[in-house]
Amino acid sequence: MLHDSPEAFLLVDDSVQNKRYSHFIGLTKRQYSGNVHGMVRSVGLVNRVHSSRKAGDFLPWTTGFMRPTRTRKPKTNIFRTCSTALSRRATY
Question: Is this structure's pTM higher than 0.70?
Answer without folding.
Answer: no
